[in-house]
Specification:
Belongs to the methyltransferase superfamily. METTL23 family. GO terms for molecular function: methyltransferase activity. InterPro entries: Methyltransf_16, SAM-dependent_MTases_sf. It holds the Pfam family Methyltransf_16. By secondary structure, the chain is an alpha/beta fold. The chain has a single domain, classed as Rossmann fold, CATH 3.40.50.150. Helix content is 29%, strand content 19%. A seven-stranded mixed β-sheet has the order 3-2-1-4-5-7-6. Helix 1 runs parallel beside helix 2. The longest helix is centred in the middle third of the chain and has 14 residues. The termini are far apart.
């Protein structure tokens, strides 16, 4: 099943989000970071190596993706990083018992429109619980018809676009990786609409 394989590759959006984290590495020590849909966890691993307190998560229904998270941690000498099964749109004991969070990471989580509302439901829950937190996300533009604007409004969330050139990611090659290539990748930060953000 192709779906279960999504989390076993490093996708171009992960490289771009990792570049953003690297560009902001001085702000990361001590930050509490949760990566959702982590798969091989490149952004989360970069955040942890930069001093953030990271929790990695992927769907509890995809044990292979959770194992990819664990393997990435071990290969990067981060055996202490917790890995949780969190399924978008589902309130679980793991979600309810999460410690406070400053930043939520998600690279290429907006790849299938059927999941958009479940993702934003989970993000809304986390931001309500952590009002000053932000969701840093990169996504690949796959269709001009796909939009989350109505869902952002429905869930009282706002987004701000982050220009790739502002953190040196407007190149075909990043950190010796040709992965971003000619893909149209965008970044945004999502927060509660009434929050001033941090």
């Amino acid at each position: 099943v192709l779906d279960s394989q999504y989390g076993t590759y490093v996708w171009p959006c992960a490289v771009v989000l990792a570049q953003y984290l690297w560009a902001h590495r001085r702000s990361l020590p001590g930050k509490r970071v949760l990566e959702i849909g982590a798969g091989v966890s490149l952004p989360g691993v970069v955040a942890a190596r930069c001093g953030a307190q990271v929790i990695l998560s992927d769907s509890e229904e995809l044990p292979q993706c959770l194992q990819s998270c664990r393997s990435s941690c071990l290969m990067n000498r981060l055996p202490h990083v917790p890995v949780l099964g969190l399924t978008w749109g589902r309130v679980s004991p793991e979600l309810l018992s999460l410690a406070p969070i400053d930043v939520i990471l998600g690279s290429d989580v907006f790849f299938d429109p059927k999941d958009f509302e479940d993702i934003l439901t989970t993000i809304y829950f986390l931001l309500e619980k952590n009002p000053h937190a932000q969701f840093w996300t990169t996504y690949q533009v796959r269709s001009a018809d796909w939009s989350i604007e109505a869902l952002l409004h429905k869930w009282n969330l706002r987004s701000s676009h982050v220009p790739l050139h502002s953190f040196g990611a407007d190149k075909e090659h990043l950190a010796s990786s040709s992965m971003p290539g000619r893909h149209t990748i965008e970044m945004m930060i999502i927060s509660l609409a009434q929050s001033e953000g941090t």
